[in-house]
From TrEMBL:
One of the Pfam families matching this protein, by short name: ABC_membrane
Transmembrane residue ranges: 59-79, 85-102, 162-185, 205-227, 594-618, 638-665, 717-737, 743-760
Protein name in the entry: ABC-type xenobiotic transporter
Membrane-topology annotation of the record: Multi-pass membrane protein
GO biological process terms on file: oligopeptide export from mitochondrion; renal tubular secretion; response to insecticide
């Protein structure tokens, strides 16, 4: 029974996980705009565990309890239908009450899981943008925000606990009340039949009926915790199946649609109107019409947010136009097969996304089955081959999560290679060279010029050098085409394009003059990082022009075994999973809940005494039938009064045990989640560089470990305490009435303990493998969902689904094996009950025959034995929950024990009231901790005077961004020192240091706040001041755009700011940095996505 259902549950949960992931990857991009990826991640980990819990061995155990209840009542009906009918008269009330509570419980569970999903989404968003959080000192703010989400989840959980407690209390009140009613009415029937020659109700019939009714009620009462597990599973499954059942409007896996035998590459937009699904009130395209001939190169230009990137997304059919049509070779894209459409296009986005695998595998994602030769050719074309060859592992080099181990320019070149390897008919370049240095841009641009021969190419760019060679330039403004022509034609028209170019060339001239002035007067300077990554102070413009080449790259080889980065989920941790969590530490962490836990624990133990007392009362009932008739009613009334007292105390203690322990569980697990999140978010940046510390793995741990601890609280821990006190009372009763019977009972205890121990070993030994597999699967899922636009453009949904499925197969096999062993152990425990009862009856009869024990006393002992061992058997049913909680606690403690080298919340270090802004790098040598074999900075020396502007120039990957990160103290140097105002940054308070610095990075990270809140994120030390926000927005040239939005500054940006264009995002990020009025401003390609006017 247990084995079959557990194996079936393992198969089903694998199928559900795969169906869920498959359905997620099929959804249209508009769906992702409206749903957070972190919420999806929470469903994959936390919700699936609860579904598996409800699908597994608890189902057959619940069925066995219900069937035993039905059989017990059927037997009672057979022997005495009148008595049984009266007893069952309370059943409709109980069933209706339980059904209502079960429904409310499932709803509360669903709401709780949704709240936890929101908290998980927020955690995923924050961990994905951890550098931005660290740069702006947002740790405390994010911890508070996460805590607020947890508070909402906790309230829902407490509500669920209240429903469960009420259901349990009502159940036990009715059960014990039924005992009293059954006995009272049974005695009445028996006395009425005594005068009959052939009485229907004798003492024997009454005992049979009462015994069956008592056992039926006990079985029904024991089913209550299993109903809760089922309600939790139903709540978790509701949202999961909503997503599985959702049919996407734009399904990339669909086989329907036309597949053209040959693609020419003509594109036509006819009067297209469009607004994004998540922001329907803001029109983006307002009747745009555009024609692109086969093989033609068309450049789209215009201000940020005018709709250029939207055009590309409509060609790829990420969205469907609201009105008008988009045609490819004369066919509406809505009629074409989506997979075929995307297979024939190559996209390089403004913010290139790489996946956490090798460089070669990243390029091969552009073309399934690409050969190594094709990969190398594409890399050479994209001017990436030379820097890849310089790496220790070359094309087998891991790029890190989202390509974080590479510089922006290196990432962009690999993304270009990935697009070119598929040799697409249509090439879509959205600011494809914005992150490249001048030399690389020239080489890549030349390669792209060659690559676009014979294929239709659409270019979005702001740089004149990128667009002037296009066959046709289209000026887009306010969602419509304003001008069309070649560069020379548009310049002659002196319209919008002319003004854009004029602004750009004027800016270039001013910058060049400024540079000449700067270098001639030596007021400012440029530091060039050369081949050996040494800083050289330049004093002349001619030197400035002689920039460097071939600097050491930031790419990551295999993780060195000597690295000291703390990681989660290491393979060697399997041994630690067998350890016991510190009991003192558990008690210390749970100390705020002690008063509630004590009340709940005592109530659970007191409720556990009720069943043995019923056994004693049952024995007393048997003695009544041998009394004279006139004495029976008085004795019966006394016993009925005892039942009434027991039913009342059972209601009180049952409610207190379940509610108090559920309350403790909710408070404890939310606090554990907060502690884990706090410790993760305050780790130094090197921690997040390690592949095993991916966002997916960390989110999985954050959700799963706390869920496992929560899974052993509430009614589950109540059941354990309940069973313990019941069993102890049964032993006492056994020894009290006859010590020989007590020893017979005690002889079976070691077998039950042995079974519990063996099951614990089985579960613990396989749990780590399961968790590691689920973490790996979650990592793949989150990575794919976070970068769904890239996955969709590559039409690689199936590839990521297969990787996800493969990650689950190994733990699935282990789960099936565990299920078989667990079934054997559970069967053994259940058989012990029967053997114990049989041995008790056999030996008891011998004692009765020898007159060593009275029959009524024997029944008291046997009833106690049966109930006691049954309760222990029920505890075995929840053994997996206890062992999961134990492993979860160990893993949580290991996470909490991780200590960052650079602690943002530490009070230690010098704080400077006023920083002038003097910076000096003194013989700095640096390697990233995650790749100690690659030296990034080698004896770097340069200094920056207060108030001066210094430009760091050099080829991609030479160490420019590394300097920025060392000033922010994201890392510590291995040799030398970084000095700010004559203080070594290592000696300064980290939070204070970063509070004086403003950072705008190459790929700006925005959060799912409103625009105002994102800008106000620049200063997390005080409440939002709208005057400062608006002032910063004006400086960043974003204010006018914001005021055109229906909600203005209150407009929600969506996840990672997806509701804005690249240029708009970058301007919001600039406003965020300017708001804090920093003494030191660090701009890492801060204007690469901006149009000339901005």
């Amino acid at each position: 029974m247990v084995s079959c259902f557990s194996i079936a549950a393992a198969n089903q949960i694998l199928r559900i996980r795969c169906m869920f992931m498959e359905s997620i990857l099929k959804q249209d991009i508009g769906w992702f705009d409206r749903n957070k990826t972190g919420d999806v991640a929470s469903r994959i980990s936390g919700d699936m565990s609860k579904i598996q819990d409800g699908l597994g061995d608890k189902i057959p155990i619940l069925i066995s309890f219900i069937s035993s209840t039905i059989l017990s009542f059927a037997s009672a009906f057979y022997y005495g239908w009148k008595l049984s009918l009266v007893i069952l008269s309370v059943s409709p009330l109980l069933i209706a009450g339980m059904a209502l509570l079960s429904k409310n419980q499932a709803n509360a569970s669903k709401e709780e899981l949704e709240a936890y999903g929101t908290a998980g989404a927020m955690a995923e968003e924050v961990l994905s943008g951890i550098r931005t959080v660290a740069a702006f000192g947002g740790e405390k703010k994010e911890i508070e925000r996460y805590d607020n989400y947890l508070l909402a989840a906790r309230k829902k959980g407490i509500k669920r606990g209240l429903m469960t407690a009420t259901g349990d209390a009502l159940t036990w009140f009715c059960i014990y009340g039924v005992y009293g009613l059954a006995f009272w009415y049974g005695v009445k029937l028996m006395l009425e039949d005594r005068s009959e020659p052939d009485p229907e109700y004798t003492g024997g019939v009454l005992v049979t009926v009462l015994f069956n009714i008592i056992m039926g009620c006990i079985y029904f009462g024991q089913a209550a915790p299993y109903f809760e597990a089922l309600a939790l599973a139903r709540g978790a499954a509701a949202k999961v199946f909503d997503i599985i059942d959702r049919k996407s409007f734009i399904d990339s896996s669909s086989e329907s649609g036309l597949r053209l035998s040959s693609l020419q590459g003509s594109i036509k937009f006819s009067n297209v109107y469009f607004s994004y699904p998540a922001r329907t009130s803001v029109p983006v395209l307002r009747g745009l019409s555009l024609t692109v001939s086969p093989g033609e190169t068309v450049a789209l230009v215009g201000a940020s947010g005018c709709g250029k990137s939207t055009v590309i997304q409509l060609i790829l059919r990420f969205y469907d136009a609201d009105a008008g049509s988009v045609q490819l070779d004369g066919h509406d894209v809505k009629r074409l097969n989506i997979g075929w459409l995307r297979d024939n296009m190559g996209l390089v986005g403004q913010e290139p996304v790489l996946f956490s695998t090798t460089i070669a595998e990243n390029i091969k994602l552009g073309k399934r089955g690409a050969t190594d030769e094709e990969v190398i050719t594409a890399a050479k074309t994209a001017n990436a081959h030379s820097f890849i060859e310089a790496l220790p592992l070359q094309y087998n080099t891991l790029v890190g999560e989202r390509g974080t181990q590479l510089s922006g320019g290196q990432k962009q070149r690999i993304a270009i290679a990935r697009a070119l390897v598929r040799n697409p008919k249509i090439l879509l370049l959205d600011e494809a060279t914005s992150a490249l240095d001048t030399e690389s841009e020239a080489a890549v641009q030349s390669a792209l010029d060659q690559a676009r021969l014979g294929r239709t190419t659409i270019i979005i760019a702001h740089r004149l050098s990128t667009i002037k060679t296009a066959d046709k330039i289209v000026v887009v403004s306010d969602g419509v085409v304003k001008e069309v022509g070649t560069h020379d034609e548009l310049m002659e028209m002196k319209g919008s394009y002319y003004q854009l170019i004029l602004a750009q060339t004027k800016e270039s001239d001013e910058e060049e003059e400024k540079d000449l002035s700067v270098f001639e007067t030596q007021t400012d300077s440029a530091t060039v990082l050369n081949e050996s990554n040494e800083g050289i102070e330049l004093q002349g413009y001619s030197s400035f022009r002689r920039s460097i080449e071939n600097g050491f790259c930031r790419a990551m080889p295999a993780i060195n075994s000597k690295t000291e980065i703390p990681v989660v989920g290491e393979q060697e941790d399997a041994e630690d999973e067998k350890a016991e969590p510190s009991k003192m530490r558990l008690l210390k962490i749970s100390s705020p809940e002690w008063p509630y836990a004590i009340i709940g624990g005592l109530s659970a133990m007191l409720i556990g005494l009720h069943l043995p007392l019923i056994g004693v009362i049952f024995g007393e009932m048997l003695g009544i039938f041998s009394l004279p008739t006139e004495m029976i009613p008085e004795k019966a009334d006394y016993i009925c009064l005892l039942f009434l007292i027991i039913s009342t105390t059972a209601f009180i203690f049952s409610f207190l045990q379940t509610f108090m322990l559920s309350f403790v569980g909710e408070r404890l697990t939310t606090r554990l989640r907060k502690m884990i999140f706090t410790n993760i978010i305050t780790q130094d940046i090197a921690f997040f560089d390690h592949p095993k510390n991916s966002v997916g793995s960390l989110c999985s741990r954050l959700t799963n470990d706390a869920s496992h601890v929560q899974g052993a609280t509430g009614s589950r821990i109540a059941t354990g305490l309940h069973a313990t006190s019941t069993f102890a009372a049964c032993l006492v009763i056994g020894f009290w009435y006859n010590y020989k019977m007590g020893f017979v009972i005690f002889a079976f205890v070691p077998f039950i303990v042995l079974a519990f121990y063996l099951e614990g070993r089985v579960i613990s030994s396989h749990m780590f493998v399961e968790e590691a597999g689920f973490e790996a699967a979650s990592k793949i899922a989150i990575e794919a969902i976070e970068s769904i636009r890239t996955v969709a453009s590559l039409h690689e949904e199936k590839t990521f689904f297969i990787k996800f499925q493969d990650a689950l197969l190994e733990p699935h096999k282990k789960s099936r094996l565990k299920s078989q062993i667990r079934g054997i152990i559970y069967g053994f425990v259940q058989s012990v009950q029967a053997f114990a009862y049989a041995a008790g009856i056999y030996y008891g009869c011998i004692l009765v025959a020898n007159e060593e024990i009275a029959y009524s006393d024997l029944m008291k002992v046997l009833e106690g034995v049966l109930v006691g061992i049954m309760m222990v058997g029920e505890t075995i049913g929840f053994a997996p929950d206890y062992h999961k909680a134990k492993v979860g606690a160990i893993r949580i403690f290991k996470l909490l024990d991780l200590k960052p080298r650079i602690h943002i919340l530490s009070e230690h270090g010098k704080t400077l009231e006023n920083i002038e802004g003097y910076i000096r790098f003194e013989k700095v040598r640096f390697k990233y901790p995650s790749r100690p074999d690659v030296r990034v900075l080698n004896n770097l020396n340069f200094e920056i005077e207060p108030g001066k502007t210094v430009a760091l120039v050099g080829s991609s990957g030479c160490g420019k961004s590394t300097c920025v990160q060392l000033i922010e103290r994201f890392y510590d140097v291995q040799q030398g020192k970084v000095v700010i105002d004559k203080e070594n940054v290592k000696d300064m308070n980290v939070a204070d240091l970063r509070s004086h610095i403003g950072l705008v990075s190459q790929e700006p990270i925005l959060f799912s706040y409103s625009i105002a809140e994102n800008i106000a994120y620049g200063d997390n030390t005080q409440d939002m001041d709208m005057n400062r926000v608006i002032s910063a927005a004006r400086q960043a040239n974003i204010h006018n755009f914001i005021t055109t939005l229906p909600k203005g500054y209150d407009t929600p940006l969506g996840e990672r700011g997806t509701q804005l264009s690249g240029g708009q995002k970058q301007r919001v990020a600039i406003a965020r940095a300017l708001l804090r009025n920093p003494k030191i401003l660090l701009l890492d390609e801060a204007t690469s996505a901006l149009d000339a006017e901005s």
